[in-house]
Amino acid sequence: MPIRFDTRNQRWRFEFDQVIAGQRQRASRLLPKGYSRAEAQKFDLEETKRLHVVATGVNKPEPLVEDAVLLYLKHHAPALKSFENKVRELKACYSAYSGKPFSALPAIALSYKPVDENKKPMAAATVRNRLAYIRAACRYAWKHPGLGDSNPADRVSMPKVHNERHVYLGRLEFLKICR
Description:
Number of domains: 2
Number of strands: 3
Strand content: 5-15%
Helix content: 40-55%
Shape: elongated
Number of helices: 7
Order of helices and strands: EEEHHHHHHH
Strand order of the largest sheet: 1-2-3
Largest sheet: 3 strands, antiparallel
Structural class: alpha+beta
Mean pLDDT: 88
């Protein structure tokens, strides 16, 4: 049984090690903390099926968002002025996209609701910028190394930002500036 309880991490671990079609297939993943035994066994069944399908060549493996982010940060982003900012922001939202395939990108955009250190929701502009970085990484990985069959960023809906600032000078302020 490829599911076991990892006592060191106090979480369930999925381990897969089989020979399929003459090639050894191995995978290991630490499951989220809240998983029960039944949820872990359900994950085991689904992931084992998926690995068998991929190993026999019936389906191509769907690329992961985190692989796209790594490619983007390694090959494209170092030439940009805002490289350090992109790295910081992509690290901050790593939990939102870790282990998820390209097809989950629209769901990631809908469910991503970060909070700051005071447990208040972050501004819509911050969320939009982080999602834009993830979307750019996926689009880069789709175009250049050719990961995936279609553009993963097509169906992503970005949050709306309403932070326009309209400040107009009054007559007295205008006269002060003119003098």
